[in-house]
Description:
three-stranded parallel beta sheet; single chain; 2 domains; 11 helices; alpha/beta; TIM Barrel
Amino acid sequence: MPYADLHIHSTASDGTLSPEEIVRLCRENGVGALSVTDHDAVEGTLRAAPLARAAGLVYISGVEIDSLWRGRDVHVLCYGADLENGALLACIREARAHMDAMSDALLERMLKDFPALSREEYAAFERDKTLGGWKMLHYLLFKGVTRSMTDGMRFYGRYGVSYAGAGFRPTAEVANIIRPAGGKAILAHPGVTLRDEANFPRALEELAAEGADGLECWYPAHSRDVREACLSLCRRRKLLVSAGSDCHGSFQDTQIGQTKTDMGDVSLELLRLT
Length: 274
């Protein structure tokens, strides 16, 4: 049976693959159902949809929206929604603006320690989208502050720039915007989001109670215990089961279809959101 990979990033956010390349790799890797779920952006999924369907693949429109729960960043995968819905688009664009504002805040705090950095230069700087990542990571590498793209991530913590104070909407509010737009709200990689929780099953149940329609149970970084806890909660709460690689192309290590999850192991209701 073909695989399902409902969590892929393109050059529209921080991935290195174009929608065309994603569709090609899905066919090569045995993926029969996919979703491009860029961070707080819909351009990639809108481009990928007709390409995937023309290639004979099942395509579910998607976007990954940043939200906040108990001071931590929670990624909500929105599937099958009307991407022209005004409230949903406003939520997505607002989250994107908050992400950009975090980088602006980081730059302001770094100026005193790195005089070669410049507000004006950063404002005019254009990143190479085919390399993945986001603008601030590219700029720090360009200026010689870092030696690799991912090395720049550590500066957010070092300079006290966090999601907690960035103004993101609560997870429950995001979920309650997705559903009226005809979509499903799926919690992305809960094993990563809740990795520091001493009692993972309890924390998972509490987070899912924020309005989640389902969980991304099959995920490369999930241990068997985490996956089984997710699947168990889905059975008990009648939540939808999803699977995704979270592939960012060469920006990160995972590959399209990496979980090798059969389409039959994903909730049929998700696969019907075409």
